[in-house]
Hints:
Blueprint: H1 3-10, E1 19-21, H2 29-37, H3 39-43, E2 52-55, E3 62-65, E4 68-75, E5 78-79, E6 89-96, E7 114-117, E8 123-126, E9 131-140, E10 146-150, E11 154-159, H4 173-186, E12 194-197, E13 204-208, E14 210-217, E15 220-221, E16 231-240, E17 247-251, E18 257-260, E19 265-274, E20 285-295
Parallel strand pairs: 1-20, 3-11, 5-6, 13-20, 15-16
Antiparallel strand pairs: 2-4, 4-8, 6-7, 6-9, 9-10, 9-11, 12-14, 14-18, 16-17, 16-19, 19-20
Amino acid sequence: xxxxxxxxxxxxxxxxxxxxxxxxxxxxxxxxxxxxxxxxxxxxxxxxxxxxxxxxxxxxxxxxxxxxxxxxxxxxxxxxxxxxxxxxxxxxxxxxxxxxxxxxxxxxxxxxxxxxxxxxxxxxxxxxxxxxxxxxxxxxxxxxxxxxxxxxxxxxxxxxxxxxxxxxxxxxxxxxxxxxxxxxxxxxxxxxxxxxxxxxxxxxxxxxxxxxxxxxxxxxxxxxxxxxxxxxxxxxxxxxxxxxxxxxxxxxxxxxxxxxxxxxxxxxxxxxxxxxxxxxxxxxxxxxxxxxxxxxxx
Length: 298
């Protein structure tokens, strides 16, 4: 067990030195209740397609305020910037009000309807005109040629920036919760460089197995051996409250998500985003506390 892991265990999974706490659960009790109504939706393991992409924070029929955040997710492959050949990695594109390309092998065009994220980004902030829009993720190789690994189309309604925050009350809980949650899950994060578990918050209760999705702001992702300036990859350490040795998850293939099978109990997740050597942290370590309350069978 590492020194930092021992410190975390001895402190009952308190935040260790050099680790930044993850975004907390909402302080308002009704907002916290609303957020945790959707925890299982955000963390459920999906095994329908071995290789798949999706916009992990947007749902079909959702209403968002412009500008809004889109979190990218890829399963079964890694992320790598354009221009870097790799048989098991690629980069994301967002199709805005466009159908999938009809001709295999053609490069994805560069225009406002085909948004390229060739720096290895794990998400984007979009500003679209008010009204209905269709979005889809399309994964492609180093030459912007689609792998034809793509997400379902998501239909959203875009509104202008909100002038006042949504308030959830017990009287309007169902409607207010949905409106508040749609704002909360799609609002842009503050400017800055950070790595985080994008689909859970500090202290959240979950059911195992739990799917965890990672994001990095200010950098791109690349598999080990393909890095460079502005690029790195994720490392995850799972600290157990019973004092047992931590579990290390290797994401050096450029992966941006993982699934953990955990026994009921308390855990600390230490997420690192490191350079190509695997030794230098590019952003502060983020620690997220989770409480596993039960287990599902897949």
